[in-house]
Design brief:
With 126 residues, the chain is an alpha/beta fold. The protein contains two helices and eight strands; from the N terminus they run E-H-E-E-E-E-H-E-E-E. This is VOC family protein.
Length: 126
C-alpha cells in the first residue's frame, strides 16, 4: 500500500481570489497562478507542503462562531512567536478579532475572522 500525501486543504468561500489574497498577506505565501482559475485559487506553501486552496461556493454562509447557528466546521491555527505579533499580522492582513472564549482568557491563542467570516487562531509558540 502506498503512502498518502495531503493534496490541498480547501476552504469554501464566495470570492476565492479575495480570500487567497488575504491568506497570502497573512502567511506570506504566493498564489500559484498555473494551478488557479476563477472558481479555485491555490496558495503555494513555500516550504513545499500542501497548498491552501479556496473554492467557490456562491451560497457560502459565514460561520457564526462562537454561536453554533452556522457552525465553523474547521479552522486554521497559525503559529507565531507572540500573541502581539499574531495580532499585528492578522489585523494588518485584514482580519477582525473575535471574542476570546471565556474559559480561554489566559490561553496562548487569539481568535480572528477572515474577510468571509471563517474563524482562525493565531497561536503563540510554547
Amino acid at each position: 500500500m502506498s503512502a498518502l500525501k495531503l493534496a490541498a486543504y480547501a476552504i469554501d468561500c464566495a470570492d476565492p481570489r479575495r480570500l487567497a489574497e488575504f491568506y497570502g498577506r497573512l502567511l506570506g505565501w504566493q498564489i500559484d497562478e498555473p494551478a488557479s482559475e476563477e472558481s479555485w485559487v491555490e496558495l503555494a506553501d513555500p516550504a513545499g507542503g500542501a497548498p491552501l486552496a479556496f473554492q467557490l461556493d456562491p451560497e457560502h454562509r459565514a460561520p457564526t462562531w462562537p454561536d453554533r447557528e452556522v457552525p465553523q466546521m474547521a479552522h486554521l491555527d497559525v503559529r507565531v512567536a507572540t500573541l502581539d505579533e499574531g495580532h499585528e499580522r492578522a489585523t494588518a492582513a485584514g482580519a477582525v478579532q473575535l471574542p476570546q472564549p471565556p474559559d480561554q482568557l489566559d490561553a496562548k491563542f487569539r481568535v480572528y475572522a477572515d474577510p468571509e467570516g471563517h474563524p482562525f487562531c493565531m497561536c503563540a509558540a510554547q
